[in-house]
Amino acid sequence: MATVVEAGRRRRAAVVVLGDIGRSPRMQYHSLSLANQGGMEVDIVANGGSDPHLLLRENPSIHIHEMLTGISKISGALTLLLKATVQFIIDLIPHPDVFIVQNPPSVPTLAAVKLASWLRGAKFIVDWHNFGYTLLGLSHGRSHIIVKIYFWFEKHFGRMADEKEVEDRNTTVFTSRIDGEIFLKPNRPALVVSSTSWTPDEDFSILLEATLMYDRRVAATLGEDDSMDERKLWIDMKNGKQFVYPRLLFIITGKGPDRKKYEEQIKRLKLRRVAFRTMWLASEDYPLLLGSADLGVSLHTSSSGLDLPMKVVDMFGCGLPVCAASFSCIDELVKVNNNGLLFSTSSELADELMMLFKGFPEECDDLKSLKVGALNTGSSSKWSTEWERYALPLVNQLIGWTPLIEMKNIPKKEGIQTRLIGKMETYQPLFSVKDRTALRNLQILGGSI
């Protein structure tokens, strides 16, 4: 039964993130949509960490409440379960009409938020980004007792939700200045971007092996001897010598536990035609990088086979084609030979790099075709449009509120879960950057590679 909202009171939503809100783009999008399109006051309850997007920080209807660090130091299974619930009481956020939480993590978030919603008489919505037990199974194995307990916990408390939103399936190395105008160099390296969480579900070694193969195959194709002086190669490039295959500069963004391990592996590769830079960018800078790049690479593979990578959505929103690791439902997002390509092995990825970058930057027709497809994908649907069509009616229905404007073609309640499948991840991000000269702002890329 829907909760009736008192006349004259502005509706309120509590968005719960048991993690860093700055690294949770999906929940940032939800918060902005609830405030701007839902006309609601929004309280975000999250851990501290990196700054959320400027649009959240400057929105007067969005209020961010950081969890106390002292509580996070409490250990033990029982206190972990109690942590988030106690935090709600300490924060004393105003009475919400609805709680929205992303899963995973499931423990203790689902139980804590369900209890909080019951205590405060609010509705409880779970946005299923993935199944937490499948992630835990990557390190422990699906048959481990801990994974089985986690599965029961996730299933039990997930069913208690009132609704479930489900996912389906100046002079730089790149530019030169002539008479005050900045131009892209014809012999510039190609810029490739990959955003990773540096976790086991994204096998970064595939990318390293593929770049090593690219490095060796280019040398063989061009008849270059690896004993050739590196300095001579660089001088030839600076002097305008054209190459059939460009050098590649990979910018890897993200934070995670395996980052240091792979950075050490990169150093040992001694690549001559490929270079890597790792960095963590502010929310405002990330779309500038995507809009300046030539190709995106996604290494994400779903532990459940159900969640689609938001990073690919961001890339398409900036008109960037993607080579993505293949898994069961990725073809719902990446359309082969339209907006990107799929690969299952490092050799396949190396083949794709060779094919796309042959003749770069002017004579690479395959890459140009994919860019057109990526731009069409990014402009065909926006987060705001899709959220208003599918998510807003769900929220309104749960809390018993009818908007003043007429809303057409709203799906019936019994169909919402099915119709949400394949929709929540096909949105254009909040920003779209197509001006490739934005790379001028990334001075860190200057110098030789």
UniProtKB/TrEMBL annotation:
<keyword id="KW-0472">Membrane</keyword>
<keyword id="KW-1133">Transmembrane helix</keyword>
<dbReference type="GO" id="GO:0000030">
    <property type="term" value="F:mannosyltransferase activity"/>
</dbReference>
<keyword id="KW-0808">Transferase</keyword>
<keyword id="KW-0812">Transmembrane</keyword>
<keyword id="KW-0328">Glycosyltransferase</keyword>
<dbReference type="GO" id="GO:0005789">
    <property type="term" value="C:endoplasmic reticulum membrane"/>
</dbReference>
<protein>
    <recommendedName>
        <fullName>Glycosyltransferase subfamily 4-like N-terminal domain-containing protein</fullName>
    </recommendedName>
</protein>
<dbReference type="InterPro" id="IPR026051">
    <property type="entry name" value="ALG1-like"/>
</dbReference>
<comment type="pathway">
    <text>Protein modification; protein glycosylation.</text>
</comment>
<keyword id="KW-0256">Endoplasmic reticulum</keyword>
<dbReference type="Pfam" id="PF13692">
    <property type="entry name" value="Glyco_trans_1_4"/>
</dbReference>
<dbReference type="InterPro" id="IPR036052">
    <property type="entry name" value="TrpB-like_PALP_sf"/>
</dbReference>
